[in-house]
Amino acid sequence: MNETSHPDAALLQVDAPHRELLDQILDKWSLQVLDVLCGRPMRFNELRREIPVVGQKSLTATLRRLERNGMVERVVITTRPLAIEYRIAPIGDTLNELIDALLRWTTANMPEVERARARFDDEE
């Protein structure tokens, strides 16, 4: 896309910092974690049960990355024993509608994508 193709082209930057952020919030597990946490705050093991295919190490790395980017907050609950809860941060909550739209889009368009993949694979 060139800069004259869109009236807001100057606002639609895709330089290194933007690509890095997009990579980190659209990676394999981040979308699912954000989607789940938009529903309600959860403890680590609750998240693991909610997303059973994610491993402990991957979930830990994802939560740390999302926390570093301000999307998720890690809250220490002063009970006995101490508990850690993860919740969506205000900036992460702004992604809620976008994540829902992306997930709806993938559900609606997956059959067409699968047909396109099959056509491509058959040609090779």
Automatic annotation (TrEMBL):
First and last residue of the signal peptide: none
GO molecular function, one term: DNA binding
Alphabetically ordered keywords of this record: DNA-binding, Transcription, Transcription regulation
Short name of any one Pfam family annotated for the protein: HxlR
Full protein name: Transcriptional regulator
Annotated organism of origin: Cryobacterium luteum
InterPro entries (alphabetical): HTH_HxlR (IPR002577), WH-like_DNA-bd_sf (IPR036388), WH_DNA-bd_sf (IPR036390)
Keyword match Transcription regulation: yes
Keyword Translocase: no
